[in-house]
Amino acid sequence: MATLIPEVAGLGLAVAFTSPGSVVTVIALLSMSNGVRRAIAFICGWILAIGVIAVLMIFVFHGEDFGSRHTTPSRGASALEVLLGSLLLLVSFRGYRRPAQQTKSQSPPKWLDRIDRTHWALSIAVGAFMLTFTLTVAAVAEILKANVGAVDAAVASLVFALTSIVTIAAPVVVVLVAPDRSARVLATWKAWLLEHARSIALILLIVIGVFLIVRGAYDLAA
Predict the structure, then answer these.
(1) What are 58-65's contacts with CB under 8 Å, separation 24+?
(2) Among residues 26, 51, 103, 188, which one has the fewest Cβ atoms lying within 10 Å of its Cβ?
(3) Domain count of the fold of the chain
């Protein structure tokens, strides 16, 4: 458990900082009617998706032996990490190969314009959909391989969930703490993210992909 918490916290931060598009979405939601409600609903949907995956992990795989690197479940989890790492590298490579003219003038997704005409609770589904599932599954694999009890697994999942929302919760905190300055601050954040989001995500996804491949391959070879 002592090593599991830093690992899932690191993966949670990886989710947070490879999701600049989600931060832009939260900023856009805050500018709409019932903006704070929409943004909080988005975060709740994000956490709810993590919770569903965690519950499935705890109950579906309850009783499986992940305690040794040589057991079939543990080796399966390691192979899953290699697969997820390879998928991240593939996504990064495709993003890098994308022509530059397609990414220079970025703007928020057009579907966000239609969200303002819907009930604020719909943001729950948007948040759940925009969760980075690849890294979430990687965190689940780490928890499984740690072979901890249900309570410890729940705690580790909570740590992952809380660290994963660091960036998407920041705009809401700004609005609540400094409402008078929030519009200017968030506009600056939004412009910076739209300009640098692609580079940030590509670099971090490559690093995380390599880490998952090395980690999973090492456990498979051990």
Answers:
(1) 58/150, 58/153, 58/154, 61/144, 62/150, 64/144, 65/147
(2) 188
(3) 1
